[in-house]
User: Fold this.
Amino acid sequence: MSAPDPDGLLAEQLLRLTRRLHRSQKRQLESADVAITPAQSRLLRTVAHYDRPPRMADLAERLEVVPRAITSLVDGLEASGCVRRAPDPDNRRVIRIELTDAGRAVLRALRSARRAAAEDILAPLTAEERATLGGLLSTLVDGPHPGRC
Assistant:
């Protein structure tokens, strides 16, 4: 019989925790009557991070997907009123993606759902345990990434 694989166990625990977080966030969004896919959510958050409305090509590059995938996501978000396509004032052949007021409201609902889901999952931990976990997660998220350029 082989020895337990601690890294394999950790990977499984992280995967289960991520799934639990997503399920909890999905329930929070459903209770707030917000219908958005995870991919649309990611695109909306990405658009919000730009100082000025991004081009579709900028979004495809940032999200590491093909431009066609961005077009489909923007179509869905535009249909729900969260974003709008707008001509670039400096080059009318370029289309930029702008957040609408409805899109900003959805972003607020997403943040609220994420916080509520995290609170639900972190509820069993003490303040000290949360601080320790936060430090460990920061190390993992912000630390060196082997194999990346």
Summary: Strands lie at 83-87, 95-99. The helical segments are 6-31, 38-49, 56-63, 67-79, 101-122, 127-142. The chain has a mean pLDDT of 90.
